[in-house]
Specification:
Rossmann fold; globular; single chain; 4-stranded antiparallel beta sheet; alpha/beta; about 250 residues; about 35% helix
């Protein structure tokens, strides 16, 4: 049997093939397949319960697929624990920021860089200082993470993922809960990260934020892929319109 991963197009960084997940009798994802090319931004849309975060959790290693195959480049991710996937180049954020609240902003990044990115302490200091600057947190370097505003906690969540120096960045509703102006600031930051060559897969309900950055969109509903392709064409899809009626646009 031909191994689909063998001879994979070197422009493809992430490949999911027929990925499924069930919790007992409840099917959350069924036969989802997609590729993510190096340097692109793939946006993932879908109503609550569509299986979006479950898909992220399988890519990051937080849960195991019930079926299918996920590869980073030529490497199968099956059996690799989350910390190894981080070391392999997968960084992610969570819907609710998860900083070490008692540590400073800078200390949060140092933990991610040394343990997630495998850098030495000396390398981490210089690298994390650049990440803080890039994420507009340099003036909050010594601020306790638990006292940051929501926007700055979102920035820190993104900065922690970047501190591991990822090839692939998974963003899980990073714009959720922000005002329109705050969302614009975060979109500008994500765009700068993309322009530096980081490949991004972004789950988001704030559609205008996703449309401002994404090269392609993938839409899930009840655990199945219902559309994929150019953002404007996907949004014009009648089934996507039906599923997304009433969602912020």
């Amino acid at each position: 049997m031909l191994d689909r991963g063998a001879g994979m197009d070197r422009d493809i960084l992430l490949r999911a093939t027929d990925v499924s997940k069930s919790f007992g009798a409840v099917r959350v994802l069924h036969g989802v397949s997609f590729d993510v090319h190096r340097g692109e931004v793939l946006g993932i849309l879908g109503p609550n319960g569509a299986g979006k975060t479950t898909l992220f959790n399988m890519i990051s290693g937080d849960i195991k697929p019930s079926g299918g195959d996920i590869r980073l480049g030529e490497q199968r991710l099956s059996g690799e624990p989350p910390f190894r996937r981080c070391q392999m180049g997968i960084g992610r954020t969570y819907q609710i920021p998860r900083p070490y609240s008692g540590m400073s902003t800078f200390e949060n990044l140092l933990v991610a860089s040394t343990f997630g990115g495998g850098k030495s302490e000396a390398e981490s200091y210089a690298f994390c200082a650049r990440v803080l600057q890039d994420c507009e947190l340099a003036d909050k370097a010594n601020t306790r993470a638990g006292s940051l505003t929501l926007l700055d906690r979102k920035r820190l969540e993104l900065a922690r993922a970047l501190a591991s120096d990822p090839k692939l960045l998974l963003l899980d509703e990073i714009a959720g809960g922000l005002t329109e102006e705050e969302s614009k600031q975060l979109v500008a930051l994500v765009r700068r990260i993309r322009d530096r060559g980081v490949t991004i897969v972004w789950i988001e309900h704030v559609l205008h934020a996703l449309m401002a950055v994404a090269d392609r969109l993938l839409v899930l509903n009840f655990g199945e892929k219902i559309a994929e392709g150019d953002p404007q064409e996907v949004i014009a899809n009648p089934e996507v319109k039906r599923v997304y009626m009433g969602i912020e646009a």
